[in-house]
């Protein structure tokens, strides 16, 4: 019986060694591994969020670069304010070329902004619709940044054969004072 007892003692001692090993070595290691896996999942989730933010920032950066390119192209289009006289002569010459002699042009005081200067301009004349159409298309093709605020054409219902009154109000954009166009 002693040998059975020794066998059971050996089995018990082996079992006790396995339990002690599990409690002392494997269980703390297992807990650290579980915590490390949880930390890894948390860091991966944060990394995913940061990568998404980086992608958004990259897109924003690309948009800013595109806007900067467009702005620099617009800046190159801005001409010196001294060219206002040239623009006015071109507009007047085109109206005369179209056969319109009775024309008036009024400029107003310039408005100064940090990046550009605007000069309000009003052109009025009497002509036919097709002449007004050709003149507006001519203005579209000029190398001056022009924004038409208002275009009005009026004809008296009683005088359908007479020319129409055309009034064009616009803003002409120039380089800021002191800057010369590139």
What can you see in these coordinates?
- Helices cover 56% and strands 21% of the residues.
- With 182 residues, it is an alpha+beta fold.
- Strands 1, 2, 3, 4 and 5 form a five-stranded antiparallel beta sheet that branches.
- A hairpin with a 4-residue loop joins strand 2 and strand 3.
- It is rod-shaped.
- The mean pLDDT is 84.
Any key phrases for this structure?
alpha+beta
SSE layout and pairing:
Elements: H1 2-77, H2 84-97, E1 103-107, E2 111-112, E3 117-127, H3 129-140, E4 146-154, E5 164-174
Antiparallel strand pairs: 1-3, 2-3, 3-5, 4-5
**Amount of beta strand:** 15-25%
* Whole-angstrom Rg: 41 Å
Instruction: Label the structural class.
Output: alpha+beta
What is the general shape?
A: rod-shaped
Largest sheet: 5 strands, antiparallel
Q: How many E strands?
A: 5
Helix and strand pattern: HHEEEHEE
Question: How far from one another are the termini?
Answer: 110 Å
Question: Could you report the average pLDDT, rounded to the nearest whole number?
Answer: 84
Approximate helicity band: 55-70%
How many DSSP H or I helices? 3
Could you name the ranges where pLDDT drops below 50 across 5 or more consecutive residues? none
Concise overview:
The chain has 182 residues and is an alpha+beta fold.
